[in-house]
Amino acid sequence: MLNELQSDLGAFRHYLRAERGMADNTVQAYGRDLDRFAKWCALVRYGDYTTPTLRDLARYLAFLHDEQLAVPSIARHLVSLKMFYRFLKLEEKADAAAVDLLASPKLWERIPSVLPPNAVDELLKAPQAGDRFFLRDRALLETLYATGCRASEVVGLKVQDVYLDASFLKCFGKGSKQRVVPLGRPAIAALRAYLADGRSAKPADGPENVFVSKSGRPLDRIFLWALVKKYCKRAGLPAATSPHTLRHSFATHVLAGGADLRSVQEMLGHASISTTQHYTHVDRDRLKAIHKQFHPRGKPGPDPKPADGVG
To answer: Residue 68: left if φ>0, alpha if ψ -120 to 50, beta else—which one?
Structure first.
């Protein structure tokens, strides 16, 4: 049975290259993850890999933890395994149950730094209309998850860098590197409502920060951290949840939807992306299409009207 697994893994690599048109480094990344799965199968003498159970997959998760992999790496391994089982389903060697198990919230909840999509939904719904800064807080959380931006990038976001009509924003990452990040319909709606009706008076001089306090002062990372903790507690989510958890969750969910690693790297700002004033090296339409297709909240809205001060 293990020889058959190796044969299927080889066929899967060929499928990614020949039929999906993925780059060699992407295929190799999936291959390395699945080689570890094959290693585990051999160690535990796990023969019937075509019909895994939740208990089997939990055992594999425990193995990945024992290998001392970082949480994002463990999440990526599960995404690679899900892709493999989708392939097996196409080849009629496994049924839909295996793919469903790999998307099961019960499985993802075993990875503490990644929230399952239903938990993210609960967090995003946590700010209520009766809260003092409801529109701001909802827009903050939506922006964190919609973009996968770092906490510092979100609190440093300027009004002139938000393009709601075009469904994207510009942010400045580590080393002041600029990148374009797509926005989905829920984030656009939340930002539009906040900028139109929920934003406090702002300073007269200097660039305008999107997210400000009642007095118009820019928020900082510590404030954002406390804000996420507040709404996580309200939503009944783990106390360890942080703004960075939403970044990990963004990447995991988009990858789980089938996005390629290179595109996710671009959206997260992990890759070295050279930029110019006109962003000639960033294909906005390509990134927006990927975000729309794979992000759970990435569907664009119907021709929204721009809020004042948004280009």
So the answer is: left
Domain that holds residue 247: 117-294
305 occurs within a structural domain: no
Domain count, the chain: 2
Q: Is 161 strand, coil or helix?
A: helix
Report the alpha-carbon distance of residue 101 to residue 78 in Å, rounded.
Answer: 11
Does some domain include residue 40? yes
**DSSP one-letter code for 218:** B
How many other β-carbons are positioned within 10 Å of the β-carbon of residue 292?
15
Distance between CA atoms of residues 287 and 52, nearest Å: 34
DSSP state of 158: B
pLDDT single digits (tens) 56-72: 888 888 888 878 787 77
Question: Are 164 and 241 found together in one domain?
Answer: yes
Q: Specify whether 143 is located in the same domain as 206.
A: yes
Residue 75 within a domain: yes
> What is the pTM assigned to this prediction?
0.58
**pLDDT digits 0-9 by tens, 41-52:** 888 888 788 888
Catalytic residues: 150, 174, 244, 247, 270, 279
**Domain end position, chosen among 108, 138, 166:** 108
Q: Which tens digits make up the pLDDT trace of 6-49?
A: 999 999 999 999 888 888 888 898 999 999 999 998 888 887 88
Element (H, E) at 163: strand 162-163
Tokens 């392939």 locate to 87
Question: Residues 176-235: pLDDT tens digits?
Answer: 778 888 899 999 999 999 998 867 655 545 558 899 988 888 898 889 988 999 999 999
Dihedrals phi, psi of 169, to nearest 5 degrees: -135, 160
C-alpha distances out from residue 12 to 22, 75, 110, Å: 12, 20, 27
Instruction: Decide: 224 and 247 in contact? Cβ < 8 Å.
Output: no
Tell me, yes or no, whether 127 and 179 share the same domain: yes
